[in-house]
Amino acid sequence: MRRTFRAVTSLVVVAVLSACSAGTGKGASDVSGSPESQNTITVFAASSLTKSFTEIGKQFEAENPGLKVVFSFGASSTLAEQINSGAPADVFASASKKSMDSVAALIPNSKVFATNRVVVAYPVAKPLKAIADLNNPAIKWVQCDHQVPCGIAADAALTADGVTGTPVSLEPDVKSVTGKLTALEVDAAIIYATDVKSSGSDFAALEFSNQEKATTKYPIGVTLSAKSKAQAFVDFVFSEAGIKVLGQAGFGGLYTGG
C-alpha cells in the first residue's frame, strides 16, 4: 500500500511540474513575442513608393527607438484585395483613390499625401521624338496592366493624346515596367516621373499633353485593426522630414494634405 501511494504521489508531482513548466514556457513566449509584435508597424504601399518609403521608414525608426516598420510593396489594386481578404496591414498607402476607396470599410479615413504622373520614358541613347511614336509598330513599348493605378493613368493619357498603338506587354506593376526599360528590353515604357528620376541619367521622358489625365493621387490611411502606434508613421509621412524625402524623389502635391 505504501509503495502504491508513493508511486501515485510521484506521478502527481511530475504531472504538476510538467504543467507548470509548459505554462511558464507559453507565458514567456507570449511576453517576449507580444512587445515585438506591438512595436512592429506593417505598411502596405504602392510599388512606386518603394525607394522613398524605405528611406522614410529608416528615418522614422531612427526617431522612434523600439519601433520597426515592415513594408509590403506591390500594385495598389492587389494590396487592396489582400487587405479586404484579411491581410494584417496597419497602414495602406495607395497610388490611387480608387484602390483606397475599395477598402473604405476597413480604412474609413485617409488623406492624400502626394501626387505622381505617368510619362513616356526611353533610353537617352535611343530617343523618341514624340508621344505619337508609340503608334509606330517598330517601337516596342510596355505599360502597367489596365486595372492598376499606373495602367489606369496610362490609358487615360494615351487616349487623350490619340495613341492607338499596342504595348508588347502589360505588366503587374510599375516596378516591372521600369525593369523592362532599364534592362533595355523595350524602346519605351509608360512609368511614373519618379521612376524616371530614380533610373538615372541614361533615361529621359516625354510628358503627356493632358497632365490631369496623366496624374494620380496617393492617399494613405490606418486600418481599423491597426496598432495604436501606426498613426505615428502616417504622421511622419506628412512631417517635414517625410515631405522632404518625397519631394526629392519627384512627387508633387505634397502640401495639400488631402
CATH architecture of the largest domain: 3-Layer(aba) Sandwich
**Whole-Å distance between the termini?**
82 Å
- Low-confidence segments, given as residue ranges, are 1-33
* Helix/strand structural class: alpha/beta
Percentage of residues in helical conformation: 40-55%
Shape: elongated
SS summary, helix count: 10
Predict the CATH topology of the largest domain.
Answer: D-Maltodextrin-Binding Protein, domain 2
Radius of gyration: 25 Å
Count of distinct structural domains? 2
Text of the CATH class of the largest domain = Alpha Beta
β-sheet strand percentage = 15-25%
Order of helices and strands: HEHEHEHEEHEHEHEHEHH
Largest sheet: 9 strands, mixed
Mean pLDDT: 88
List the helices and strands and how they pair.
Blueprint: H1 2-38, E1 40-46, H2 50-63, E2 68-74, H3 76-84, E3 91-93, H4 97-101, E4 110-123, E5 141-144, H5 149-160, E6 169-171, H6 174-182, E7 188-192, H7 193-199, E8 203-206, H8 211-214, E9 215-222, H9 230-237, H10 240-249
Parallel strand pairs: 1-2, 1-3, 5-6, 5-7
Antiparallel strand pairs: 3-9, 4-7, 4-8, 4-9
Helix pairs in contact: 2-10
